[in-house]
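Table S2 (continued). Query chain:
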Amino acid sequence: MDLLDCYLKTRKHTEDICSHLQTEDYVVQPVADVSPPKWHIGHTTWFFETFILKPYFMGYQEYNPDYNYVFNSYYETVGNRVIRTDRGNLSRPTVIEIYSYRKYVDDAIANFLCAEPSADVKDLLILGLNHEEQHQELLLTDIKYILGHNPLFPAYNKNYVSPKVEASAAGFIKLDEGVYEVGFEGDGFSFDNELNRHKVYLNSFEISPNLVTNAGYLEFINADGYHDFRHWHAEGWDWVKTNKVEAPLYWHLIDGEWHVYTFHGLEPLKLHEPVCHISYFEAYAYASWKGLRLPTEFEWEAAAPQFAWGKSWEWTESSYLPYPGFTKAPGAIGEYNGKFMVNQKVLRGASEVTSPGHSRITYRNFFQTHLRWQFTGIRLAK
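Corresponding output:
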């Protein structure tokens, strides 16, 4: 597939995700971690304009200088920006104006790619496509939060198909102690935080081939797990009490029966499905209650070829840190991952809304311990 074709297909998929929205849905920002869909549409366009067209396409005329302020996310190198919590206040530019901006940049990229770009620019374009694919996942995650916190629990798409996860045999997979190699290697794209491939020593351990199900997690709730401090970190226990947390995000107890918000709207809880939308605090507490633990990211990577994964991101016991030899790229692109390597836990695997090209064993996702709006679940180890 040539670069332009890949670019156009990626950009179209973003718009397909938004095709199920009403105009009003594009603007909502219920909490700081959730960005309005129209901001995602503008930001992913800004990325190509800022890092490809303005520096490398001779004669390119910037669409609107104000958009650098509006759609910059966290790139200090590029200049000032609207703070994250204010994205929901951007009633202007309108959704129509942002789609016009998107078309303007797409047309310019098509003209730019009439000539073969240099290797460095091609790498930037590929990074931009992977960046947009990350935002496609965030779009679906944010849309679910926006509609799932609407008092009417409207459906996002009645035809949405959630992938099925086949349960493996019961029991645990055992791996022997030894030296294992982790990190990305080979052809194809990877993010800088997946490099460099290196050796780690692991003690012998066992890991479950299955994710914890809603039924299993419900046992924790019914055992009063949310009111028993013994299973929680001190910070997690404070979080539970302060926020009055009683169940995973999107769970609702209605007339004595548990329901959950999905892309189809509010539905009865399916007990066989993996539990999803929980914080690291909850994952840790559940594992402690079971007398088990979460795997480290290196244990997960070593064992992953032996089990199915991809329904929900899986919390690990690993802090998000650089690999040996990690270096940040110069300039704004160097702000992509390295600056976030503090106070976060690594998530491994993928989720049902992850772009296919991002479902690889070496992929390192990362989030703060209290966050639940991402599709996060539990795999146990011992």
